[in-house]
Specification:
The structure holds 2 protein chains of 2 kinds.
Chain A lengths: L17 H28 L20 E9 L6 E9 L5 E7 L5 E8 L5 E5 L4 E3 L4 E4 L5 E4 L11 E8 L4 E9 L22
Parallel strand pairs in A: 1-10
Antiparallel strand pairs in A: 1-2, 2-7, 2-8, 3-6, 3-9, 4-5, 4-8, 9-10
Chain B lengths: L29 H25 L9 E2 L5 E2 L26 E9 L5 H19 L20 E6 L1 H6 L30 E7 L2 H14 L4 E10 L31 H4 L12 E10 L1 H4 L4 H8 L36 H5 L9 E2 L2 E5 L12 E10 L2 H14 L7 E11 L11 H4 L1
Antiparallel strand pairs in B: 1-2, 3-5, 3-6, 4-5, 7-10, 7-11, 8-10, 9-10
The chains are: A alpha+beta, B alpha+beta.
């Protein structure tokens, strides 16, 4: 996310809160750089290397090992929408995303599951998202996703928005997601849908 | 259908030569992969050769000797991809692929410069991915993106883009509807457009998916105005690089600009500032009256064109690329190439009055509801690229409008002009020099 290098350097102001976004991009690059160093050290030594981090991760923070590719957010005028990405963990410890925040809206982590009647329903995912060590986890329509519960402003197609992932060790990863018009992911919007058991406290 | 055809320099296709896919990193498949890449490279050479052949140079089909000395099978042409990033958009110099879909769009009401930038970012991202064989960001049919087949997407702007962006002062003078011609029978359903997408590939499924992806991600910002599909010979059905034959049976496109020495005729030199590396696209939908063309015998058909049907050679020459001798006189004292023959009328002594032609045939369902007994609705999606429409395209069209035997069987039914912005580098979006 983050480190999407395709972000154009336009002078036109299409990105909301441009200053904040630039800050996020710098942060993310720094995080990625750290992650790269750590991975390199792991590979070359094959043994534990001195860790400067005091947290639970073997080296650095959980965010140091987490990257996201192809993030995007479904464009919407108001109400709810959803954000997606593929999360990659290049560390040797599992990483757990316990929450997410955005200036746009309160955010929940949701999953699709089968209820007692056999119908697919969307619900808040207990325990958050776990990305296994060395593995990846997809947030996608019809599967796990980040749910933006109540937009305070429109999400416009082609603009970019930040979502911050909160990890179990307290570290965070800022993801910059471009918005796209998308006809699917309808389950995210139908509050009256049968089996839709989210609570809307946003 | 002017007698002007592309004449790219020998095998020179600048930034947009197709490349084979990157080698797999799978160790288990290294040897096979190397084999396949070898084959793909041979295929790429063959298709690049087709570019040269667009200049009249034929090349061998996609087989060749591998380093081991054995003959490798042809690579899948579906694997070939045309680079996207570069100073010029692909799909202009690119040797024409087999299939075309040309979509003109209307901007949504209230579109402003900010919205145009967002649209260009969306499309740029889609095109970067799809042309390289990767799914679009929100692709719900990602498997359909796996066969790039030399996919190119070329974006153009109608006058409304400049108005919407508040940039009318940067609109090229020639960006307006062509003047009315007497032969025109234009139908509004084929005219104009605020934006255009020229989507070409050697596989029609690839084209269809790319168009769908581009349109649905843009649906809040722009809607379809018209859509025209076209085709040429399939890849592999004849030697690459042959001049196309239109549905009247004529070799169509023998003489064209040379993409190297005539580059200034195609590409804007930057006099217009943001347009440096860009060009203009003229789209003429030309209906062919095939049902009455059927009544015309072969010698008359050749007299209409001034060329032989069998090989496209001028009536005064022996081979397709021979220069027509407009002064040559036959046994009855008349010029061999008649005064109203298409070849004669399309030529001018002004070397600037030439342009790059990149036409496709169309063959739609006949409109039997309004024309009972009609057998076909066919013609040419005549697409041309030139640095200056007024200086290059319009004078030739005026001459053909005045006198051209071919006009009896060809009728322009649609017309549009677009400005084609330059290409972009990685991290940039299409149209950034104008809109950014």
């Amino acid at each position: 996310m983050s480190a999407r290098t395709t972000t154009p350097t336009s002078r036109a102001s299409v990105r909301p809160r441009r200053t904040a976004l630039l800050g996020a991009a710098v942060t993310t690059l720094a995080l990625l750089a750290v992650a790269g160093c750590s991975a390199s050290a792991d590979t070359s030594s094959g043994a534990a290397t001195p860790s400067t981090a005091s947290g639970s991760a073997s080296e650095g923070t959980a965010a140091d090992h987490l990257t996201a590719t192809d993030p995007w957010i479904k464009a919407a005028e108001s109400g709810m929408t959803a954000a997606f990405a593929v999360l990659h963990n290049d560390g040797d410890q599992d990483v757990t995303v316990v929450g997410a925040t955005s200036d746009l809206s309160p955010v929940q982590i949701h999953e699709m599951a089968t209820d007692d009647s056999g119908a697919m329903v969307m619900r808040e995912k207990e325990g958050g998202l776990t990305i296994p060590a060395g593995g990846e986890h997809a947030l996608e329509p019809g599967g796990d996703h980040l749910m933006l519960m109540e937009l305070s402003s429109p999400v416009e197609p082609g603009a970019e928005y930040e979502v911050t992932l909160e990890l179990s060790d307290g570290s965070t990863l800022v993801v910059t997601a471009p918005a796209r018009t998308f006809a699917g992911a309808k389950e995210d919007y139908d509050e009256g849908h049968e089996g839709h058991d989210m609570s809307h406290d946003g | 259908m002017a007698d002007r055809e592309p004449r790219p320099g020998p095998g020179k296709h600048s930034d947009h030569e197709p490349t084979p896919p990157a080698p797999s990193t799978s160790r288990a498949r290294v040897s096979r992969r190397a084999f396949l890449v070898g084959g793909a490279a041979a295929g790429a050479v063959a298709v690049a050769g087709a570019g040269g052949a667009w200049a009249g140079r034929a090349t061998a089909p996609a087989t060749g000797a591998a380093s081991s000395g054995t003959v490798t099978p042809a690579a899948l042409h579906g694997d070939l991809r045309v680079p996207f990033h570069g100073p010029r958009q692909a799909g202009v110099e690119t040797p024409p692929q087999a299939y075309l879909t040309l979509v003109a769009l209307n901007l949504a009401p209230g579109t402003d410069r900010d919205a145009l930038v967002r649209l260009m970012r969306i499309w740029t991202d889609d095109v970067v991915r799809l042309t390289q064989g990767r799914p679009g960001l929100t692709d719900t049919e990602p498997e359909l993106a796996e066969v790039p087949a030399r996919l190119t997407v070329t974006v153009g702007y109608g006058p409304a883009v400049f108005t919407a962006a508040g940039l009318d002062d940067r609109r090229p003078d020639w960006l307006r509807p062509l003047p009315a011609f007497a032969v025109d029978r234009l139908e509004d359903r084929w005219n104009g457009g605020d934006l255009v997408l020229q989507v070409c590939a050697d596989d029609e499924v690839t084209v269809s998916h790319a168009v769908r992806m581009l349109l649905r991600e843009a649906r809040d910002l722009a809607s379809v105005r018209w859509l025209q599909k076209g085709f040429r010979r399939s890849v592999g059905s004849e030697p690459a690089g042959r001049t196309m034959r239109n549905l009247m049976g004529q070799i169509d496109g023998t003489r064209n600009v040379d993409l190297v020495t005539d580059a200034p005729l195609v590409w804007s030199d930057g006099t217009d500032g943001w347009l440096a590396g860009g060009t203009s696209m003229v789209v003429r939908r030309i209906r062919m009256e095939l049902d009455t063309w059927d009544e015309v015998d072969r010698s008359t058909r050749e007299a209409v064109m001034g060329r032989r049907l069998a090989d496209g050679a001028p009536l005064t020459g022996a081979r397709e690329h021979d220069e027509p001798d407009l002064e040559a006189v036959g046994p009855h004292g008349l010029t061999v190439i008649g005064p109203a023959a298409h070849v004669r009328r399309a030529r001018t002594s002004d070397p600037a009055e030439r342009f790059l032609r990149r036409a496709y045939s169309y063959d739609d369902a006949p409109d039997v509801a309004t024309d009972p007994g009609a057998l076909s609705s066919s013609g040419l999606v005549f697409v041309t690229f030139q640095a200056d429409v007024d200086r290059q395209f319009v004078p030739v069209q005026r001459r053909l409008d005045e006198v051209d035997l071919l006009n009896e069987w060809t009728t322009p039914v649609g017309s549009a002009v677009f400005a084609v912005p330059p290409g972009c580098a990685e991290g940039e979006f299409l149209g950034q020099p104008l809109l950014g």
